[in-house]
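STRUCTURE:
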């Protein structure tokens, strides 16, 4: 595989496709993943008991407000469950899913290929490194060039010996404050983007300044910001003027926490998220300012409790619940089509 074969096309786990074939796309999801790098053992005895319980309806009351604290909730390991859940999106009219699990999130290329065959969904696989909390000890001595080479290999040759190729660089993990290894991983990812023409997707830490710091590092490292996405705008960039500043850099702004309607008072620090209706209001403000072509939306399902199997909203949530609210608020079919189809098509096609 060389770069000329990739240019103008989208790379799925089952091979290259024309961008026209992408259809309605969720640009940031997880189907099989291990998010246990987020797990912290609590000190209190009774809390210890509940964080190690399997996810069942008996502890749903607790899970709803204690986000990212139950270990089992962070594991999406069941391939058959993934197929069943992903089919809900297909049956609702969806066509493609970008699976952002990369190194540190239990990426499983062979499973994604099987899920794609079983569901008929097109799946784009991630590459590169997630958060510092998931890095192995070798990350300290790894050079920037070595990381770049690994990402380029995943895209050009395939993951390990599977022959299954990644189609996007991401989600690249950044904490707050950012660690040195995360800066190194960011610069290496920017270089891999330059070498392959792939889209670059970055997860910012939980601070208002995190997104802009990432953009500055990427810009300096030679990234193409017009082919870069900042994730989790709905928790990480809460000031309207900061969203405009970010949009002015040319990057995509991804509202990918659709379905999370709550606030999480007992988490490490308070996270008060907008609900879906407010997310749509913010998106409409960005459209008014001329940034329609830079908006992506998704559900970032990586917890069991987000799935229907465990009482959550599932992969068809945007199709079933969000699009009708967009219409009710006055968004046009054309705008919805741009966000659900045209923007992902443009974003994920290699250049
Ligand atoms: Zn994610």
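SEQUENCE:
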């Amino acid at each position: 595989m060389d770069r000329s074969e990739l240019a103008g096309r989208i790379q799925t786990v089952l091979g290259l496709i024309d961008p026209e074939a992408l259809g309605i796309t969720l640009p940031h999801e997880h189907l099989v993943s291990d998010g246990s790098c987020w797990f912290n053992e609590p000190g209190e005895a009774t809390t210890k008991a509940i964080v190690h319980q399997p996810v069942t309806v008996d502890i749903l009351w607790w899970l709803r407000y204690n986000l990212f604290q139950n270990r089992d909730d962070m594991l999406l390991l069941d391939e058959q469950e993934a197929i069943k859940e992903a089919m809900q999106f297909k049956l609702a009219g969806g066509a493609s899913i970008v699976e952002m699990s990369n190194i540190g999130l239990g990426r499983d290329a062979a499973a994604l290929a099987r899920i794609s065959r079983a569901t008929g969904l097109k799946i784009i696989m991630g590459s590169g490194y997630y958060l510092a909390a998931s890095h192995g000890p070798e990350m300290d001595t790894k050079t920037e060039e070595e990381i770049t080479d690994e990402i380029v290999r995943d895209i050009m040759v395939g993951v390990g010996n599977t022959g299954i190729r990644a189609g996007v660089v991401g989600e690249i993990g950044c904490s707050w404050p950012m660690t040195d290894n995360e800066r190194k991983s960011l610069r290496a990812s920017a270089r891999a983007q330059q070498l392959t023409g792939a889209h670059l997707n970055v997860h910012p830490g939980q601070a208002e300044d995190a997104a802009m710091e990432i953009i500055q590092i990427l810009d300096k490292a030679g990234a193409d910001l017009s082919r870069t996405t900042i994730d989790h705008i709905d928790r990480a960039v809460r000031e309207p003027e900061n969203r405009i500043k970010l949009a002015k850099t040319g990057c995509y702004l991804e509202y990918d926490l659709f379905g999370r309607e709550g606030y999480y008072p007992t988490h490490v620090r308070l996270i008060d998220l907008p609900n879906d209706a407010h997310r749509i209001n913010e998106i409409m403000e960005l459209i008014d300012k001329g940034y329609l072509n830079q908006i992506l939306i998704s559900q970032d399902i990586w917890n069991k409790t987000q799935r229907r199997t465990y009482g959550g909203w599932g992969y068809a949530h945007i199709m079933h619940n969000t699009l009708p609210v967009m219409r009710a608020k006055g968004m046009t079919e054309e705008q919805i089509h741009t966000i659900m189809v045209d923007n992902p098509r443009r974003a994920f096609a290699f250049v």
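REMARK: The first strand starts at residue 10 and ends at 12.
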